[in-house]
Amino acid sequence: MAGFVARRIAKGILVLLAIVVLNFFLIRLAPGDPALVMAGEAGAGDEVFVAQLREKFALDQPLPSQLAAYLRSIVGLDLGYSVRQQMPVATLIGERLPATLLLTGTAFLVSLSLGVLLGSLAARRAGTLADTAITGMALLFYATPLFWVSLMAIILFSVRLEWLPSFGFETVGAGYTGLARAADIVRHLVLPALTLGLFFMAVYVRMTRSSMLEVSRLDFVKTARAKGLTEGVIQRRHILRNALLPVVTLAGLQAGTLVGGAVLTETVFAWPGIGRLMYEALLQRDYNLLLGVFVVSSAMVLIFNLVTDVVYRAVDPRIEVAR
Amino acid sequence: MNNAVPLSAPAPARRRGPLAAFLRHPGAVIGLVILALVVAAALLAPILYPTSPWRMVQRPFVPPFTLERVPLGTDALGRDIAAGLMHGAGVSLIVGLVSTLAALVIGVPLGALAGYLGGRVDDALMRFTELFQTVPSFALAIVLVAILQPSLSSMILAIALVSWPPVTRLVRGEVLSLRSREYVQAAIVTGQTTFTILRREVLPNTLSPIVVLASLMVATAILLESSLSFLGLGDPNRMSWGFMVGAGRTVIRQAWWITAFPGVVILLTVLALNLIGEGLNDALNPRLSRER
Questions:
Q1: Which residues of B touch A282 (CB under 8 A)?
Q2: pTM as predicted
Q3: Structural domains in chain A plus CATH codes
Q4: Does A146 contact B at CB distance below 8 Å?
């Protein structure tokens, strides 16, 4: 197991390196002088700073040395400086990261558990009204634009019903501490996490349902029935456990989409995470910050993929993970 | 986005033409009708609303169903919502179709080469594909459009660049299984070039799964397009559904209709394409749908 994890980490680092190289070329795609692009254009007036950037990233030297200089700064966790926000990019992202982890983590857990629950329910009652209702709902959520359903949720639950707050991470100036603060944050978390999770719930419902139907036709299920096991045991131990494997694989693949979706959710709900930071960077055309968020969110996806790989191994001990 | 999960209800397997099988699928027919309406809206927009959808035609915040001249009301700047919806249809359809075609142009050759040549080429190409699958695609699309400057073509390019990996994986798998077939082996023995074999013997047989995947990809591309436009990354000269939702966002408490209508239209269009994709899947891959 330790060897497996080490190999996966090594592979992840390689992928991350490739993404950093991609980033390097993206900066050069932007119109104008890369130094000015990194300075965030507005800072163009500050000649000294631009000259510093030019020297630090070896911009007056051939492309390979430029790439080496860029890699060196990234390895040192230096993502550059955001002139617009007057702060290092790494610090800005570090401040916002916990909120995003809380949001995407909650959305992931809620969507996966609800999706598997509803999907297995639909599979067990395949062909009935309950099945039709669940698959129909999944089809609908699968086609719903994330940003729009968030706005509709605000209209319904915040404006009309006044049940939940519509923006922010917590009530500003309320001065809650301890449990009261946690409860306040949870109240703010409900709408963003649920709306972000809807699409993924739909994906997991469809996957679980079809996977369970497929497994339930296999021979070992017949054997279990012939042995006289109760239906509940067969469904849970024999069918669901095996049917979950493709769902876990899919969940790993969806990590990138989840992090990308957070940009929309955080923008709509003014959730102070890196997605919202990306939107702010976009509005101000702060390319350095934009690319910094991109690298960090890619790293998040890589870590998430690593975790799902380990979980996959735990769920299915038969599998000898190759390489 | 992983859209390559055609999970449809088990269809009764009867030997009929693919068209009949498609039309027996009630969802697919509904999808086709909705899509036809969207296409009609796109084609009729310049005739029914010849003036620019950006023009102020009434006072701002006219609620829907009150004035006959603006049936769906106006937005915060007095622009006609119905006109915006009609003009936005064209943008969504063009971006959805062209970016999917571009993704196929990237993905099909890569997948065919990886599957057919195998070995080192396959390894290298699959690593490359994995890289693009790992990167958060929406974030990459945002970065690309922001850097290339928002326009219809940069949006199409960005969406194509983030959506080709599933195509490559699908084509690779199909080609891998076709490569050892006798007729392909026969073509190799007769000394045809790799390019000819791929083009004439192998690729035509991968067509139906590609068509199914492509129809689902158009749906995803339209969702991506509207999300990018919502963030303000759309073509500044063209009215689009995502932009309309984004523009109505700040006044959502006073005027729900400005955001509600464009969103419903996006939802219906994407739903229609997904339904068509499922219908095509049942019609073109009867073996596959029977197994499920």
A1: 142, 146, 231-233
A2: 0.87
A3: 2-89 (no CATH), 91-315 (1.10.3720.10)
A4: yes
